[in-house]
């Protein structure tokens, strides 16, 4: 097998330059073909099957954390095609972090960018793509922010923005399973209908509604006890007046601010805007970094979510883009809302 592999080219997207635009464009990326990497002792070579498109990748690229010339970072599901690792055999399926490339190494000496360590996947337990979605970092983000930080109680009203997306759809369903009243905020009516009808949220309003504050207030007659923040900007403005005394917020993301020309951390301006309301109403606003929750919560999360997936107590929607060549378009679509559900590039 290894002889065949060394004859193959490894296809990659690399960062061409540090992007300056509000959204990614084709010139930010460069296609690269290179020889297959050699598998060293303690490593496996995997063929990428699924590649995750996430907003944080844009933050890394624009901030210079990812440097021009580097393989674009991304979490992946892969199948082992050559192994010199005692725990992983040829044919095994793995969650790992190959980045935007057709093949990659996992194991000794390979950095996996900190959190969500490589692990073997059982395709009988859950569809493989869920390892980069509901059963992966996105699911853990929802679990950490909602369950660990905000501790929902039955009957409370939970508001979640970017409700039809990868994180948002999990947050709302976990809240529903905890007996909460769940109100989503999404863009187009098609997404709002999906959130209400397929995910079973109590209500979903559109952030495109010219009177969003009124629409949201109507959907939250008892105010908001928990806000799961994915968006910021005018969506946060609409939620602020609805926060109840002792409300909790998980500040997960601020996607509406990721294209700002001002490169300061948007969390600072967000906190400054909320400060008076938070103090007056004793609101707890928690910063969320999923990486801080892996060691303690990955296992309980996988057990709880694995049971929900097996028992079909949760639904999830994935938006597949076929072919590594489409990764830059898929990435831009995800950031601009032209996605519907968790955005995944398929290579198989
Ligand atoms: N804290 C952490 O550790 C952590 C980990 C993972 C993700 N996150 C954050 O979680 C959030 C959701 O990530 P995801 O991967 O699940 O993405 P996603 O929700 O699947 O996709 C992004 C969605 O954001 C919405 N959006 C984009 N621009 C917007 C704008 N200007 N105003 C309102 N909505 C806008 C769009 O939905 P509509 O079409 O409905 O507008 C789009 O579909 C992001 O903020 C991300 O940074 C944080």
Question: What does this protein structure show overall?
Answer:
- This protein is an alpha/beta fold.
- It has two domains: 2-131 and 316-346, Quinone Oxidoreductase, Chain A, domain 1 (Alpha-Beta Complex); 137-290, NAD(P)-binding Rossmann-like Domain (Rossmann fold, 3-Layer(aba) Sandwich), CATH 3.40.50.720.
- The chain is 30% helix and 25% strand.
- The chain contains ten helices and 15 strands.
- The strands form three sheets. Strands 3, 4, 5, 6, 7, 14 and 15 form a seven-stranded mixed β-sheet that branches.
- It is globular, with a radius of gyration of 20 Å.
- 46% of the residues are buried.
- It binds NADP nicotinamide-adenine-dinucleotide phosphate.
- NADP nicotinamide-adenine-dinucleotide phosphate binds next to helix 2, helix 3 and helix 4.
């Amino acid at each position: 097998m290894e002889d065949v592999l060394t004859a193959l080219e490894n296809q990659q997207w690399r960062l061409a330059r540090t992007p300056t635009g509000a959204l990614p464009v084709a010139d930010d990326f460069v296609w690269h073909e290179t020889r297959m990497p050699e598998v060293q002792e303690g490593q496996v070579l995997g063929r990428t099957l699924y590649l995750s498109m996430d907003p944080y990748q844009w933050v890394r690229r624009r901030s210079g954390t990812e440097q021009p010339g580097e393989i674009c970072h991304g979490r992946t599901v892969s199948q082992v095609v050559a192994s010199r690792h005692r725990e992983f055999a040829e044919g095994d399926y793995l969650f790992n972090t190959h980045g935007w490339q057709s093949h990659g190494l996992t194991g000794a000496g390979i950095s996996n960018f900190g959190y969500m360590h490589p692990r073997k996947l059982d395709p009988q337990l859950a569809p493989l793509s869920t390892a980069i979605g509901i059963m992966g970092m996105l699911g853990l983000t929802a679990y950490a922010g909602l369950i660990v930080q905000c501790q929902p109680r039955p009957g409370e009203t939970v508001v979640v923005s970017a409700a039809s997306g990868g994180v948002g759809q999990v947050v709302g369903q976990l809240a529903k399973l905890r007996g909460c009243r769940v109100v989503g905020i999404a863009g187009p009516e098609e997404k709002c209908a999906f959130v209400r009808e397929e995910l079973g949220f109590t209500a979903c309003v559109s952030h495109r509604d010219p009177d969003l504050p009124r629409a949201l207030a109507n959907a939250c007659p008892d105010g908001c006890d928990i806000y799961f923040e994915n968006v910021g900007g005018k969506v946060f403005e609409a939620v602020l007046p609805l926060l109840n005394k002792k409300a909790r917020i998980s500040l997960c993301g601020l996607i509406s601010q990721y294209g700002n020309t001002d490169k300061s951390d948007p969390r600072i301006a967000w906190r400054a805007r909320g400060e008076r309301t938070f103090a007056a109403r004793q609101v707890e606003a928690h910063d969320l970094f999923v990486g801080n929750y892996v060691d303690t919560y990955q296992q309980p999360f996988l057990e709880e979510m694995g049971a929900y997936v097996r028992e079909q107590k949760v639904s999830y929607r994935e938006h597949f883009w076929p072919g590594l060549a489409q990764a830059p378009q898929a990435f831009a679509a995800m950031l601009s809302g032209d996605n519907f559900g968790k955005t995944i590039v398929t290579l198989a």
